[in-house]
Design goal:
Layout: E1 2-10, E2 15-22, E3 27-31, H1 38-45, E4 53-58, H2 68-72, E5 74-77, H3 89-99, H4 105-114, H5 128-140, E6 146-150, H6 158-174, E7 179-184, H7 187-191, E8 196-201, E9 204-210, H8 211-217, E10 219-223, H9 225-230, E11 236-241, E12 246-250, H10 253-259, E13 264-267, H11 270-279, E14 281-282
Parallel strand pairs: 3-7, 3-8, 5-6, 6-7
Antiparallel strand pairs: 1-2, 1-4, 8-9, 10-12, 10-13, 11-12, 11-14
Protein name: ABC transporter ATP-binding protein
Keywords: ATP-binding, Nucleotide-binding, Transport
GO molecular function, one term: ATP hydrolysis activity
Length: about 280
């Protein structure tokens, strides 16, 4: 679906360098703190901004060569974009129908009713959560093959975030050939949703892993000074100095459990991987 090779986008005080891939039928997550380059990557891929180096292939084409039918296959949610606040929901329905031949009018209206989105109220009077859900409804109700979701849950309460994530799961269940690229700085949103995860830090991809492998095989070793000296570091990805000694991130948790029974080896999670990969020392 999407392949990015050596993409470089330069600003005066920031450079994005990115290579990644989104496979057909997969949900791929992009996680990183605010300002790490997530939105720049999305805009580059979608052809909204130019880039200096590298190649991007979306549906087999470069962004500048995308055809009308390619864009009809995409559902897009960008954090700062949205519908004009003076419009009402009933006003945007014919616009979406004109833009997308496969727009599912009845499903869109049904979703608005289910989630209490009024059709006769100006969008600028909506809450943040209502606006976020409306953008997702518009993205998923025209038979899109590929969703681009840049921070779709930012600023939402827990219940609203869960509503949005459930809609994305339902979208994938309807057709297993669909794909999603979703960015967030909220690890729990991506941990229970994605098939694989990329981590971006200061404009560079610093980590990529299958989500099941991360949750099942990654771990955090807690070692004092003497334990750290004799620790086999072949499978250690990152180390951070602690008051008690060292925290060590590994992708081979079982190996250290079996060979170092005297050490604490905790099961890893996405938050710990983020902390260790962005704040630890690589080996």
């Amino acid at each position: 679906m999407l392949e990015i090779n050596g993409l470089v986008k330069r600003y005066k005080d920031f450079t994005l360098e990115c290579s990644m891939k989104v496979e057909k039928g997969c949900i791929t997550g992009l996680i990183g703190e605010n300002g790490s380059g997530k939105s720049t990557m999305f805009k580059s891929v979608l052809g909204l901004i130019s880039y200096e180096e590298g190649e991007v292939s979306l549906f087999g084409r470069a962004p500048a060569r995308l055809q009308k039918e390619d864009r009809e296959r995409m559902g897009i949610v960008l954090g700062e974009s949205g519908f004009s606040g003076y419009l009402k929901v009933k006003d945007i329905i014919p616009v979406l129908a004109a833009m997308y031949p496969k727009f599912e009018r009845e499903r869109f209206i049904k979703l608005c009713g289910k989630f209490s989105i009024p059709q006769d109220k100006a969008i600028n009077e909506f809450s943040t959560g209502m606006k976020a859900k409306l953008k997702v409804f518009a993205a998923i109700t025209h038979g899109a093959d590929f969703l681009f979701m840049d921070e779709p849950t930012t600023g939402l309460d827990v219940m609203t975030r869960n509503d949005v994530l459930d809609l994305l799961r339902e979208y994938m269940e309807q057709d297993n050939s669909r794909s999603i690229l979703i960015s967030s700085h909220i690890s729990s949103d991506l941990e229970g949703l994605c098939d694989d995860i990329y981590m971006i830090h200061e404009g560079r991809i610093i980590f990529h892993e299958d989500m099941d492998k991360l949750l099942n095989e990654y771990g955090l070793i807690k070692a004092d000074e003497e334990q750290f000296k004799r620790l086999d570091k072949e499978h250690i990805l990152s180390v951070r100095k602690e008051n008690f000694g060292y925290s060590c991130l590994t992708g081979q948790r079982r190996y250290y459990i079996e060979n170092y029974p005297d050490m604490v080896v905790e099961k890893g999670n996405l938050d710990e991987v983020i902390t260790m990969m962005s704040g630890g020392r690589r080996l």
